[in-house]
Design a protein that fits this description.
With 276 residues, this protein is an alpha/beta fold. The protein folds into two domains: 3-100 and 248-274, Rossmann fold; 104-240, 3-Layer(aba) Sandwich (Rossmann fold). The protein has twelve helices and twelve strands. The chain has helices at residues 17-28, 44-49, 66-72, 78-83, 102-113, 131-142, 155-165, 177-180, 225-232, 241-247, 249-256, 264-274; strands spanning 3-9, 32-38, 58-61, 75-76, 88-92, 95-99, 123-127, 147-152, 169-173, 184-189, 213-216, 236-238. The strands form two sheets. Strands 2-1-3-5-6-4 form a six-stranded mixed sheet, with helices on both faces. A six-stranded parallel sheet has the order 9-8-7-10-11-12, sandwiched between helices. Helix 5 (102-113) packs across helix 6 and helix 5 (102-113) packs across helix 10. The relative contact order is 0.14. Residues 128-133, 152-154, 157, 190-193, 199 line the site of 2'-monophosphoadenosine-5'-diphosphate.
């Protein structure tokens, strides 16, 4: 029987997930589909509570429904539990189960691009304190980061991360960033600054040590102003597209029983799609 999966969000028409999963379905000759379900916030609870009637065996969840998906699940993996957000769903005996694969996506992207990145990971600096930052801070602490400095425009959201994850998280004011870059091994942008149509992320990288790695979760454009500035200083950089591709892997394996690969061909397809 054909297995149907979809990305659930609002709005969701720009999602790249159908392209990613469609590629893997074709590559592995699997009898399945990966579609799009735009579900308005007013009806999301009913949609999840009657998920078995949707015709789907599972799905991905994106903005703004990750917290509603979390609440709708009868069981969740430990990452989703820690983050309070679910981005991957599946049915087990008619019940909705959930996981969060954003942490895996972030870590696997860095592992693939810079295999040694987490060796002696001392201090990392994370820009932003929203949902994506929450997943990334969790991942960095899991990988043995000594300290994660969180710089955010709204200080209270950085403080909230410290409350959730403990004293290894250090919220700072945006204006104090310069002084914290010196000891930083990894700099991560999780804000929307630098995204196409948004203001650029304009920070002075001169205090970063030459062995620091710089990564951005923004992937439109692929080379963000931050990554361009880091490259110009001779620093290693990792772009954000890989996080999107890698976060899709565990869901596909769960629904279709095959662990898919993030191939250069998939990356090239995604890059071509970003240009359209
Ligand atoms: P996501 O789930 O992608 O993390 P989010 O939860 O809306 O999205 O978080 C967006 C992040 O980008 C936040 O850290 C936000 O800062 P605030 O918490 O102060 O809102 C940050 N951000 C967005 N626009 C920004 C801007 N113009 N200047 C500085 N930070 C900005």
């Amino acid at each position: 029987m054909t297995r149907h999966v979809a990305i659930i969000g609002h709005p969701v028409s720009h999602s790249r997930s159908p392209l990613i999963h469609g590629y893997w379905l074709r590559q592995h000759g699997i009898d399945g589909t990966y579609g799009v379900r735009d579900v308005a916030p007013e009806t999301i609870e009913a949609f999840f509570s009657d998920f078995a009637a949707s015709g789907l065996i599972g799905g991905n969840v994106t903005v703004p429904h990750k917290e509603a998906a979390f609440r709708a699940c009868v069981a969740r993996d430990s990452v989703a539990q820690a983050l309070g957000a679910v981005n991957t769903l599946w049915l087990e005996n008619g019940d909705l189960h959930g996981a969060n694969t954003d942490v895996h996506g972030f870590l696997a992207n860095l592992d693939a691009a810079e295999p040694e990145w987490a060796r002696a990971l001392g201090e990392a600096v994370v820009l932003g304190a929203g949902g994506a930052a929450r997943a990334i801070v969790y991942g960095l602490l899991e990988r043995g980061g000594d300290r994660v400095v969180v710089a955010n425009r709204t200080r209270a959201r950085g403080e909230a991360l410290r409350e959730t994850f403990g004293p290894r998280v250090q919220p700072i004011e945006w204006r104090d960033l310069g002084g914290r870059l010196m000891g930083c091994r990894l700099l991560v942008n999780t804000t929307s600054l630098g995204m196409k149509g948004q203001p650029p992320l304009d920070i002075d990288l001169s205090a970063l040590s030459p062995d620091a790695l710089v990564t951005d979760i923004v992937y439109v454009p692929l080379e963000t102003p931050l990554l361009k500035a880091a490259k110009a200083r001779g620093l290693a950089t990792v772009d954000g597209l890989g996080m999107l591709l890698h976060q899709a892997v565990p869901g596909f394996e769960r629904w279709f029983g095959v662990r898919p690969q993030v191939t250069p061909e998939l990356r090239a397809l995604a890059i071509a799609d970003l240009k359209t």
